[in-house]
Amino acid sequence: MSANINSIKEEIESYLVSNQEELEQYRQRFIGRKNILASLFAEMKNIPAEQRKEYGQQINELKEAATVKFQELIQSLEDEQSVGQEKHPDLTLPPQPDTLGGIHPLSATRSEIIRIFERIGFNVSEGPEIEDDWHNFTALNFPENHPAREMQDTFFIRKKPDIALRTHTSSVQVRVMESERPPIRTLSPGRVYRNEAISARAHCVFHQVEGLFIDEGVSFADLKQTLYYFVKELFGKQTKVRFRPSYFPFTEPSAEMDITCIICGGEGCNICKHTGWVEIGGAGMVDPQVLENSGIDSKKYSGFAFGMGIERITMLKYQIRDLRLFTENDVRFLRQFSSLT
Ligand code: PHE
User: Fold this and answer.
1) Predicted pLDDT of residue 148
2) ∠ at Cα 258 (341, 265), nearest 5°?
3) Which atom of ligand 1 is nearest to the CA of 192?
4) Given Cys at both, which of 111, 140, 169, 337 links 250, Cβ 3.0 to 4.6 Å?
5) Can you give the pLDDT at residue 186?
């Protein structure tokens, strides 16, 4: 009899099923009401009394093994079905697109400014954010210990010789003038640093685009015409530009550029503080000494330069009232620009 028990045990252990039908066959044979174990239980009365206990134990173990195996077989069928699903994905299901990030408004403005100037022959140059005194100040006519250096609250990294975070991208223009010969038409966009308290209108890290044009016979009229073209392309044809006299160590004459307030069209509102005008940057004719400092013959060549803040232009363009929004990475703010390219 125990040979019979052993062969049933082996049969259970090695049983395999590949579909529901075979699973059902297993169930009927080992678990169902008239299963094979039931007949073994029925044999019990024919077993000599002294072996009965052991026999009963063996059948009980067999019964237990049959139930455990049944659960395993159910599981193996389920696993097989899910593997099958991976092999044959349902191509009729609707797609689930990945959510894509958008372009940051500052990057969009930067690209737009570059595209406008590229159309009139400007290229793009970049330079280091950690700058030496020569490229950030001295070559640009900031005399040593001159108060003009205090116009830009500098973050110094090292003193004597001075190494600092660049306070403007004019430093890149010096590098271009040192390494290239006129005609030069270049834009230098980039991150700049000034030691300012962070508020809705100021930040210690911001972005500039500066431009430089050097050739024979370049005049202030060229500067004005270039900036008129730029402002109309960026803000629309109705926008007017005005220049106010100003001072920068590296340009002479120097000017501050204003445009008619794009919110009220020049009527006066709280964005333009009821003047009808908003400032967008500085400009001027490159001081001959600055050309000479970089090895360009100032008798033969002249040029103009301009610079503006990308944050400021972006704020005007999209009517953003707080500069801190650009760096907080709040997706509710950023999602409003998801259509920008
Ligand atoms: N470099 C100046 C600044 O950062 C801007 C500027 C550039 C002014 C070129 C005139 C000419 O404030």
Assistant:
1) 63
2) 75
3) 4
4) 140
5) 98
Ligand 1 nearest-atom number relative to CA 208: 4
Establish if 332 belongs to a structural domain: yes
Q: Separation of 306 CA from ligand 1 center, angstroms?
A: 6
Domain shared by 179 and 322, yes or no: yes
pLDDT tens, 287-326? Answer: 999 999 999 999 999 999 999 999 999 999 998 888 999 9
Do residues 73 and 189 both lie within one domain?
A: no
Residue 303 sits at φ, ψ, to 5 deg, of -165, 170
**Do 131 and 232 fall into the same domain?**
yes
169 and 312 co-located in one domain: yes
Pairing relationship of beta strands 163-165 and 156-158 according to DSSP bridges: antiparallel
pLDDT at 84 over 80: no
pLDDT given at position 202: 87
Ligand 1, CB cutoff 6 Å, lining residues: 168, 170, 210, 248, 251, 282-284, 305-307
Round to whole Å and give the CA distance between 4 and 24: 23
Task: State residue 86's pLDDT score.
Answer: 61
Same domain, 122 and 225: yes
**CATH number of the domain within which 312 lies:** 3.30.930.10
Ligand 1 atom 5 nearest Cα: 307
- Would you list the DSSP string of 28-89? HHHTSTT-HHHHHHHHGGGS-HHHHHHHHHHHHHHHHHHHHHHHHHHHHHHHHHHHHHHHS-
Ligand 1 centroid – CA 149 distance (Å): 13
Mutation pick for ligand 1 pocket among 137, 170, 224 (CB with most ligand atoms within 8 Å): 170
| Residue percentage of the chain with pLDDT more than 70 | 96
Confidence of residue 147 (pLDDT cuts 50, 70, 90): low
Task: Identify the three-state secondary structure at position 319.
Answer: coil
Q: 21 lies in which domain range?
A: 2-87
